[in-house]
Design goal:
The chain is mainly β. It has one helix and 37 strands.
Length: about 450
Amino acid sequence: MALVAALAIVSSVGVLSLGVVTPNSVRSSTATLSPQAPPKTCRGSACKVGSRVPALGFSSGGSGGGTGGGTGGPNSAPAIPWPSPRLGILSTPSPTPSNGNVYMIPFDIPHSCASDASTRIAQWLATVPDNATARFLLGGCYLLNGSVAVANRTGLVIDGNGSTFKRIVPVPGARIWRFDFGSNLTIKNMKIVGTDPNHVYNATNATEHAIAVYGVQGFVASGITATQVWGDCLIATHGDSPQTLPTNVTFQNSTCDSGRQGVSVIVGSGFTFRGNTFLGSAFDDINVEPDVSTQAVSNLVIDANTLDHPAWMVGAELSIEGCHTTNVQITNNKDRNVPSASAPVWIYTKPGCTSSGVTLSGNTWLLNSANGHLAPIDVSNWSDVRIEGDTFMASRPSGFGHIVSLQHACHVSYARNRIDGPYRDIWAPVVADPLSCDVTVS
């Protein structure tokens, strides 16, 4: 019997539109790709062929709906068509706040993961006014075999209250929580569980993101545990109609375990990723990956995160890409479990681009034998790079030989860094190609 999931959209006017999505009931063996398949020298968007799918519900003419990872092409996954809109209109009486401006979810909405609650949750959220808190039952379990999409809201706080939001049927193209436009939104205190229990990368299902942010102006995800999603724990990109860039997006104090990437930024300004634990993804823990060369990313803070790199992960801990990426602050992060990372930090753009301004300071990076392929910090075609006050722990007997590798990089400062560990003597600070300029090592 085919399984059918409802996609529900919550708008600022309290209208609920329903569409129908028929999910895959089985995992196709031909569509799966072991994350160990790409070589350890695989870097950036070239590793993620076929992972990009236009946004569900938006036109495919732009890049706002992609999962990121390149500019598309013949190997890109096909677009997922938007379900027929407004197949039904549901309404419920407006709820009464239980405590000040906090609205508790009705008890009769299924909360034991015994039956799907996607439509009922979206219906209820549509009745909660802007600038209020929508709170779930303490420690509940809500089955979301659809997608809860929150559109054009202002000041709404969604408090999971320690509940679990679980999907058990893959629904290609459907994010678990989706936020379109709006401003000053918060989602917090919840566990989000997807349908990928084995850390297998599958391009067909790679848009199963725990949280997707499209053109929101001010967004905070806090206290989230996102696990077993095929896609990313959080992805931020533009919304369409009209095209709106996301600004001031924060992912903090959360735990991420995902099948594609931890956090992805496609375009926008003002991103903060702080105090999180990344347990591993097929590609990168955090990735700035514009879909096209015209997209810009600016003012990014990556601070005080714990970064694991399990053996099945083929990317970098941090991959900073894009033709117009500026002002990236990477501070106080630490590697924890890194058996085979070839380049903890990859900073790359193409010749002729204008990306500039990245600072690494106060971080602790673990060096290992896989660093024989790439330097721990690999920089190409970038300017204004500061690597100051970092610690590099050399725990393996072989490696690339230099901490920083520069290719056509200018205005670079390497200062006050420490190389420690039993094999520190095999490492030198910096190697630069003839096109690099103004490199200071002290």
